[in-house]
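Notebook, p. 212. Picked up where the previous page left off. The plan for this session was modest: take the two constructs that came back from the sequencing core last week, fold each one, and keep the raw output in the notebook itself so nobody has to go hunting through shared drives later. Recording the first one now, exactly as returned: residue sequence, then the structure token string.
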Amino acid sequence: GNITPAEFIPLAEEAGLIIPIGHWLIREACHQAVAWQREGFMPVRLAVNVSPLQFSQPDFAVQVVRALKDSGLDPQWLEVEITESLLMKDLTRVTQTLQKLQKIGVRTVLDDFGTGYSSLAYLQQLPIETLKIDRSFVTTLSQSGPVQASNIVIIEAICAMAHKLRKTIVAEGVETEAQRDFLKRLGCDYAQGYLFSRPLSAEGVRRFLPRPEDLAAAPAVPQ
């Protein structure tokens, strides 16, 4: 049956299996993205979460290049998501790997942002295009009280800072329309969560993928 990442990832890391699983996942993601394109869907950027253990491997960028070449996927359609805590472990190696990914055209995302201790200097220097606000800040938007008020200030500050640094902001864990509307007013660029969809198989994702004719039939957006 279905097993949540919170259950199997710690076990896979403890058993030393997370690295081969991670390499398999990147290869499968690249092949699936190409398969959707061959079916006539427009290219969409596919984000892959990467374990800190996997990202820290000296050959990580090589593995990504290999997956792209084997699948034929254009690097611009792949995103690699790393957690904020990874920056604190070995900044020099992380920076080198991020620069290699940038050089080949793969975008990088800083996941669970706001829960760690990222320095503004890191965000300015590292080639990270997107910040994902941790869901813990989003869930309180449906509540009231001092926690909600402080999180509103934090989200608004993160959005303002990110936009000054020319980075994109994504809010995680959005489950209600009220949260979505709130985040939009606070300056978030994108949102993800159960409001839009539960986890899906590759087959289920197809109903969300655009075709060229869909865009051609869409009404013009007024300037």
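Okay, moving on. Second construct, recorded in the same format:
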Amino acid sequence: MMVIDGKKTATEIRARLRGRTAALEEKYGKKVGLAVVLIGDDPASLGYVRNKVSGCEEAGVRDFAHYLPPDTTQAQAEELVRSLASDDAVHGILVQLPLPKHLDAERILACIPSSKDVDGFSAENIGKLALGEEGIVACTPLGVMELLRRYSVELRGKRAVVVGRSNIVGRPMALLLLNADATVTVCHSRTENLAEECARADILVAAVGKPNFITADMVKDGAVVVDVGINRVDGKLVGDVDFSSVSQKASLITPVPGGVGPMTIAMLLTNVVTCAERAMK
């Protein structure tokens, strides 16, 4: 069994990004810019935004962080995002979710043009992914694919099972694996014989949001197991996979923390730089 080191991989990616941002600044005289919008005072969201801003500094990306109060109106939020969309200094826009309940997230996200949609959530970018065309891909699934590539995991013809069907992880993850010629099954809360489906997987991706949900009896010997889950239990971060038992059967496995998590921010920054390169060229 080998543990996949997402933290090391993410550090290497950010170091390479600094070279790309420096080259753009030298050639075009502009810094790469990411606008992050946080509405409200959710502690977890604030922590995520701080990590993203810190990552910007390391990758040579200029951050435009906007912290709005919880009582921000729908009109105010949409106006801000539209202004960022028209700002040439901003190459990527990220609206931190979840938003306060009185706000319509879909309407706000719809104000982000696909060319600055660094989360890869827009209908255009998701459509391109579904068609196998080049676009901006959701950060977490893209990070998973990068880890699989770096650890030389063969996908072509292999059976991949994704547990979870969210628009943020599960669905784009399945499409990426399908585009890589894997045979893909998506499991969810209504799946019958879930354990048996998981146990057939050569590559198992857990993105269900339930701590220690995937146990050893659900994993085939020698499978590659990717744990996307981040859950807090008794003050500690744990994944969707019961690491202690599953690691005894897997050939490769991602830990929590230190696996997929660091890759999400690294791929967000990669998307920002990619958007900037396209805009400047």
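Notes on construct two before I forget. Residues 6-28 form the longest helix (23 residues).
Flagging for discussion at group meeting.
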